[in-house]
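F.,

This is the one I mentioned.
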């Protein structure tokens, strides 16, 4: 749908004649969807899109992008936290330990939050983590939250002595594609194909590790672990969402460090830990 048509629909349904004084920034909404659409096109392979965070992280109706407090302060806005700050304890599960009852989705999200927060602070002890912008809600950095009926998501901007970068986690049901393709960034001219390798863990779980060929200094990593009927995606880029341009016809983000703080090794470690916490 064209930008003009989107603007016309907004004018017809949210204009002053319908809702009174304007309260919707049409250009901002269209710009956000354009950014989301670009990100959704990042990683498709063959006719089937690989289930990866770079694909899913910005679709508002499916996963969204949070803006809120850092890890350790759920439900309230706050500044970035140091990696040395203690994580807030996860809320109690709705199923008592040893009861045999299935975990609620919120209890699963809490277990994932603990696994992510604990491990990334061990791997990046000097880093601070801040929530990313661009969505509603009060989601802290590194807080894994349920999304729709079967997905989970988390984000954070990461700052250390080498600069700033960003991290995205996405989790959904799925199995590895039989042909083991590499993802394709179809948002760029020529549909740039990522460099990737596939390997198998000791328990038979497939793992994909991918790197987007550098363009304008932007470096992106992606790791997918398929286990127990889910895929866990951990992706990173060497810019931060808080300073990246958002909106219509914006340039590519400016790199803030040479490579992301979460490199392929760290991403693989995190994806493996998270898949075991499901």
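My design for it:
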């Amino acid at each position: 749908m064209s930008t003009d048509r989107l603007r016309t629909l907004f004018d017809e349904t949210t204009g002053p004649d319908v809702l009174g004084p304007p309260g919707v920034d049409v250009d901002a909404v269209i710009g956000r969807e354009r950014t989301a659409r670009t990100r959704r096109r990042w990683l498709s392979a063959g006719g089937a899109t690989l289930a990866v965070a770079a694909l899913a992280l910005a679709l508002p109706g499916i996963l969204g992008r949070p803006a809120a407090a850092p890890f350790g302060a759920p439900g309230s806005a706050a500044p970035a936290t140091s990696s040395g700050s203690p994580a807030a304890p996860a809320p109690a599960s709705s199923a008592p330990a040893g009861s045999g009852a299935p975990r609620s989705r919120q209890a699963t999200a809490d277990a994932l939050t603990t696994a992510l927060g604990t491990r990334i602070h061990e791997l990046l002890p000097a880093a601070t983590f801040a929530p990313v912008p661009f969505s509603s809600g009060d989601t802290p950095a590194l807080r894994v939250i349920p999304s729709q009926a079967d997905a989970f998501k988390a984000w954070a901007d990461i700052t250390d002595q080498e600069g700033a970068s960003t991290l995205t986690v996405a989790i959904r049901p799925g199995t590895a594609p039989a042909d083991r393709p590499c993802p394709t960034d179809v948002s760029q001219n020529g549909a740039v194909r990522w460099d990737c390798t596939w390997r198998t863990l000791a328990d038979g779980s497939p793992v994909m590790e991918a790197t987007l060929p550098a363009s304008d200094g932007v470096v992106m990593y992606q790791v997918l672990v398929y286990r127990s009927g889910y895929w866990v995606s951990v992706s990173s880029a060497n810019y931060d969402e808080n300073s990246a341009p958002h909106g219509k016809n914006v340039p590519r983000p400016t790199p803030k460090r040479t490579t992301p703080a979460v490199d392929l090794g760290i991403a693989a470690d995190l994806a493996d830990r998270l898949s075991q916490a499901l």
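Residues 105-123 form the longest helix (19 residues).

Talk soon.
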